[in-house]
Amino acid sequence: MTARAIKWIASLKLTVAALVLIAAACASGTLVVQRLSTEEYVELYGALGARAVSALRLADVYHSAWFAALLGVFCANLVACSVSRLLKPGRSRWFLVTHASVVVIIAGTCVDLLWQVQGLAVLKPGRSVDEMLVDSYVRGDDGSLGWTRRPVKLPFTMELKDFRAEPNAPRIQIAAHGEEGTVVTLNADEAVRVPGTEVDVRLVKLLADVQEGREVCKRDTPGAEPFGPAVNVELEAEEGRWRGWLAPRDPGRYQVFLPEIGIAMRAFEIPPGEAEADALQVLLKMAAQPTLAFILDQVAWEAPARNGNSLRLGKSAYQVNIHEVRADYKNPESLTPANPAACYSVTGPQGEGPLRWVFALYPDFDSTHGGQVACPEVRAEFRALSENAAWFLLGGREPVCIGRTGGREPGRMEPGEDGRIALPGMGAAIRLQTYEREITMRRGFFRMTGMQVLRTAALQLEVGGPNGKSKVWLRSWGAKPVHVAGLSMAIAPGWPSVRQYSSDVALRSEDGTERVGTVSVNDPLGVAGYSLFQSGYDQERGEYSIIQVVREPGLPIVYAGFALLCLGVTVSMLRRFARFGSRDAAEGNPR
């Protein structure tokens, strides 16, 4: 009975049937999109198709019990075949190595399918992380399919020490006036001749993650100029910390919105000749009743932010019409000022222009997306207090703070005995670090906050031609081409682009062992049986790096199986060559 069972299990028919079924299963795993939710399957295949996918367990083929059973049948067939060959006298035993290697590879694969752990860890500078977020694909009792996310504890901690995004070589577009341009790639300290000209271009300096603006500086700094009052503020919250200057006269520093904390801060200046008390009352009224300010030729006209309001801008030919005011842009019915916004249009000599949106928290946002609009010389500013906000009145002897939290009635906020202004209900506080009634600032390129992620770039070029050499700056953001030496130069589309990015991570194991390693794309770092892969990063603000954490207990088994397979195939080939050589020698035909 045992011999008959082994003969049946070792039969070629069972081998072919198992391989055909495994191939069919792999094909179904290719044709049916894997690991989607029930709603997504209904959208793709309809209600009946979604039920079939769930009932036949086709949504996650490679982790299904029936696929594991097919692999088990094939392994049993292979083992039975090996046993039947062992029972025959005179047979070589080296075939066992090849057969065993296939079984070991399948066993390692099954171990990974059952016990592999894979998740993501978000690392920020200065914070230790000892867990990862794991997404699990599950099938509910009712047959519904979907994902669940859970934190998984790690046997080590990780802390981001540094992050680097390495750029590709800069590419600039150069054109003679009125002619089609050519793209030139620049390498460091290498002059490039512009085709068809006598002009050489050399890259002098590359500044990554910079913005053009003003920076607070000492009064004797070259290029420094007075810039009115400013206050240096530090905000402490559970979600993080922010510190910086608020300067009413600086378009880049008069307001800041911190979405991770959920608060907006803004600075106002007391107009010359206006008493502090009067300015405070104006500010309180403005906080209670949002207003829209429309600026033309550096003169501002204000109007209450109400639907249907109209405002003539002095004696000019422009009139502004307010169409809609929302406390929350995404939810027009909401009264909670989560994201205050207003819709308006401007009527001028060319007629009425299109509708534009202006946001209290995002004053630099362009709702026209850079397109042509009527009356571009008129711009708007929405002065509305958000749900959580702090406004600073500057210019007097001391800064005055007006604010609110949780959408409460706005009012004056005083610092406590510890010098901090508490924000009720937020677990946060504001500390006024420095107050200057007259600061000095200089203009230039300044490093953006956050990690180096190549959000922007500025290039300094040395352009040499028959008339001598000159240096120019090219910017990757919203700048027009630079004209020099009879040529038009601009950064080519698609640059800056990232060539490689990596994270320096400090690791601490449970036994107290510490080390610092680098995780790069396609270059993982191993620790405590886990592999760390560079998965992504915050491309907009440069605040975090994403590390993929993987534990694959079956991987060493798979590697061992492939090593056995190579050994078995090599020995089999050598034995066959040796056998052919012996036969040729016996027949008198030396090779």
Summarize the structure.
With 591 residues, this protein is of the alpha+beta class. 23% of the residues lie in helices and 40% in strands.
Key traits:
591 residues, alpha+beta, Tick-borne Encephalitis virus Glycoprotein, domain 1, 4 domains, five-stranded antiparallel sheet, 7 helices, 23% helix, 40% strand
Query: How many extended strands?
Result: 36
Tally the helices: 7
Percent of residues in helical segments?
10-25%
Spans of 5+ residues with little confidence (pLDDT < 50)? none
End-to-end Cα distance: 49 Å
Q: How much is the radius of gyration in Å?
A: 35 Å
Mean pLDDT: 85
Which structural class do you get from the secondary structure elements?
A: alpha+beta
Overall shape: it is elongated
Largest sheet: 5 strands, mixed
Structure overview:
This protein is an alpha+beta fold and 591 residues long. The protein folds into four domains: 2-116 and 556-586, no CATH class; 117-166 and 498-551, Tick-borne Encephalitis virus Glycoprotein, domain 1; 169-209 and 453-491, no CATH class; 212-442, no CATH class. Helix content is 23%, strand content 40%. The chain has a five-stranded mixed sheet, with helices on one face. Strands 16, 17, 18, 19 and 20 form a five-stranded antiparallel sheet that branches. Strand 2 (128-139) and strand 3 (145-167) form a beta hairpin. Helix 1 (2-9) crosses helix 4 (65-86) and helix 4 (65-86) runs antiparallel to helix 5 (95-115). The longest helix has 32 residues, at 555-586. 23% of the residues are buried.
